[in-house]
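seq as requested:
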Amino acid sequence: MNTSIEKIPIIRELEEKVKEVQPLQGESKKELLQLFKTSLKELNDAKIQYLQLLELLADTDKEFYTLFQDASRRNFADCVDKLNAIGRQRKKNATLRKAFEGMGYRLMEQTRAGKKEDVFHGILRLYMTSNQSFDRELLVAFKQADNEMFKVLIFSFLSGIIE
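struct tokens:
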């Protein structure tokens, strides 16, 4: 492992646990596996929070905007998966699911046409009329300079929520 860079705390904790748990079997293996799964979730959440903070600065400064676009591209696959997961989670809410089923094809067509403002308005309206809080993670899609990236992210969310 590269020791020339300082390790972040979560990685140091994992290394210590790996050293403690030998051989990998039984309960110690299960505990270590759970720790790795939890750590992965925390790292993924940290990436999203990082992008959200960077997004705030991107609105006010060209250099931060450039960095935001670069970071967004690097984390694009994670964003696709996260937005799809949010859609699947929101599908469990019957009111919101029904609202999206009624407007889903219109949102898909507006997305295909690249009408970001209309798509944003439509999704926000569905959340509001269903008395649900808007998932801020969706904002990443609307901040994309590349229209194709916007489309993929929105389609990912919609494919999770529309049956």
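Residues 76-161 form one domain.
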